[in-house]
Here is the input.
Amino acid sequence: MVFWRKNKNIAEQEKQEHDERFIHRPSDPALEPPTEYDSEISEDMKHELQETETELIEELEEIPVPDHMPTEDAQESEDLSDHTDEGGWLSRLTKGLAKSTNKISQGITDVITKKKLDQDMLDNLEEVLISADLGPKTAAALVADFAKDRFGKDISEEEVKEALSESVAVMLGPVAKPLEIRKPANGGPFVILVCGVNGVGKTTTIGKLAQHLKRDGGHSVMMAAGDTFRAAAIEQLEIWAQRTGSPLVTKEVGADAAAVAYEAYEKAKEAGSDVLLIDTAGRLQNKANLMAELEKIVRVLKKQDEALPHATLLVLDATTGQNAYSQLESFKSMVNVTGLVVTKLDGSAKGGVLVGLADQFGVPVHAIGIGEKMEDMQPFNADEYARSLIGLNAA
Here is the structure.
């Protein structure tokens, strides 16, 4: 406690200086100098401060860390009505991929230091692509394709970008498939099961999908809150259901997710809904439990119709980079993943991961997200993405 003590003479001197500084100030109680100077804090005050500090620490420790931060709610609160399409989708895509593009484009610039294409240049180019999370196998395949008929010949930076863009587009072409909604013959809804680990943007994706299906496709949509493990997941989906004007089927926290899906299907069929979007849990740290839950949802749905679900979408966060590979592998082992939605490309320098996923897995990519606004999630276009990623589209 020595830091709280003052020498009496020093205290008297400080008092005099303080009085002199305030002598010409207006008479304001808030500005009046103190009349007494304690040489030290009393023992009672010390004890009270210690007790207060202990209580505050205990209260802070009891505050739970939310799965969904308030800042995310603020971002998600964007109006789902039409926005002014500033510059169009291509411009926003190019800006969204800027971090990934800069890494690749600058890497190519650094690599092309000689006129003729040699092995050192190819090795360096491969490293550039790997650093952008295309993955070693995919990067090697692209470089090998690029080197055909060019080795030992004069090469320019622009030619490298054009050739890589074309190769990437060819690799992405087979997976660039829109999500097709077909009304089942039995009159029930088209059922979409939405999967993904917590935090990838599943809820936002479901909300945007619902709005696109209603606004662009003219479909009626119902939602089901199948992630019954987290209260926040149910609450977030309720908000999106209200924003999109979509009915929502929920149960209490901890309820059987399969029961939610079963009941939602019956209600959607009764209501004549065109599409049923089912949210699911994403606790990969409990992989065995998650697998059992997902398998049960699918099994229960098939009691209604063997064709259910008609589509199973996996939402992947681009910022996770190579972890997206393991997530896709894990979910493919649990359920029949029929398509991907890749989100948060605007916050990542790892946009190349989508190319690697396409090359290694061949799972259709239905849509990509580059922001929080409604128009920032669009159907995936291979040519646009390839040219934006390599840096050939002007922002």
In short: The first helix runs from residue 8 to 22.
